[in-house]
Amino acid sequence: MLYDRPDLVINMVKRLGINYPIVFDFKGKIFKAFKLKHKLTPTSILISPNNRIVMLKIGPMNIHAIEKRIQEMLLGVSNK
Questions:
Q1: By the 8 A CB rule, do 43 and 56 touch?
Q2: Integer distance in angstroms from the first to the last C-alpha of the chain?
Q3: Domain range annotation of the chain
Q4: Can you give the pLDDT at residue 79?
Q5: pLDDT, tens digit (0-9, with 9 covering 90-100), for 21-72
Q6: Handedness of CA 26, 27, 30, 32 (dihedral sign)
């Protein structure tokens, strides 16, 4: 989020052992582009290849749930 200090985010990533990519949205462009209203950290967004939000999670992310959703997209399962 644009209000998050990068050093604090990096420390959180290390502390939690997060091993997936983290994006810094310093200017809020992602939230503006997808017309998102909540701006809380952490917020995880899974965006499909056709630019649709298929998963939005506020708070700690469950990596298994996101991996499952990615597998569903790869297999062509529609968004529920």
A1: yes
A2: 27
A3: 6-74
A4: 52
A5: 888 888 888 888 888 777 677 788 888 888 888 888 888 778 888 889 889 8
A6: positive
